[in-house]
């Protein structure tokens, strides 16, 4: 009898974490490495939020809380949804978890039976398919191609829905592409979903506030109120508030679903960190004026990276609407050989050679379900980005 679970054999470790760890090992060994693989802002959590966490410690708010969040944080989340998304939720419809990943996982564990299908647009965040597999479901990918600006079409969505489909996982702006769906584009998708009342929507809005230029964020239940009763709207404080290490995510949806998610959480981790919850209350209720200047910084970095990558022959880098990622195509480089003799057979070979030969850590596109591409996180300094993109230019120029 095998000791490890058969389910575990269907799941692979996170490629983004693996690449980040590999880069860290090379750096520890003395190599000059610039990491562009981690998806977190490079600036500190705002001072008022840090102060709220310290105040919670000093006030002795260090004990167990309710399984899925304190009342004050649930109230702040309800206010946020009303303020930003015109969505009305009660605290009984809110779940708080240890990061957005746990919230998503709880929902899948609470709802999936063997054989249930979950539609996932590709490119996708690396964890979506594996969480579905761990929960006993079947991930069904639908490609969002470069030609379609990395957005799925209504026709493509319609084509993959079957009687076994239970969820659509929707992410805008997207990790890894940064692509964002405008109101009319999202309405076209919700029109499809209205024709399939057995399909629920899991909307991952983690990059909501990282939206640039004329792009206006919107979320499915806001665009189509008829989907309200079968939508789980997921968000968190990690990205916009630079709180990745605080580990607070949250979601709102139907009471019955939230209660089921609470049951899963009660028998796994129980409550999220009490201190982090109080810091998140301040994040949501406190000043939001730092978001706009941070976004201006991200726009500058985005344009820097896109400009330098698009100057490379054989590379095409679309300009994304949000998040802090770009997802360039290297179709024109496949089949070439690096200076050290590595054949660029695919995007994984490209990313590996790039790291080993230049010290630049990116994540290969196959990890996100669409090749030949790679992902860069531009949530780092202008200087690091200029140096990194310069090395990428030099590396590509020597391919033959």
TrEMBL record:
Record EC number: 2.6.1.-
Keyword Transferase among record annotations: yes
GO BP term (any one): amino acid metabolic process
Domain of life (superkingdom): Bacteria
Cofactor: pyridoxal 5'-phosphate
Record domain Aminotransferase class I/classII large: where: 32-392
Keywords (A to Z) from UniProt: Aminotransferase, Pyridoxal phosphate, Transferase
Gene Ontology molecular function terms on file: L-aspartate:2-oxoglutarate aminotransferase activity; pyridoxal phosphate binding
Cited InterPro entries: Aminotransferase_I/II_large (IPR004839), AspAT/PAT-like (IPR050596), NHTrfase_class1_PyrdxlP-BS (IPR004838), PyrdxlP-dep_Trfase (IPR015424), PyrdxlP-dep_Trfase_major (IPR015421), PyrdxlP-dep_Trfase_small (IPR015422)
Catalysed reaction equations from the record: L-aspartate + 2-oxoglutarate = oxaloacetate + L-glutamate
Pfam family, one: Aminotran_1_2
Family: Belongs to the class-I pyridoxal-phosphate-dependent aminotransferase family.
Subunit and partners: Homodimer.
Name of the protein this chain belongs to: Aminotransferase
Organism the protein comes from: Pseudooceanicola spongiae
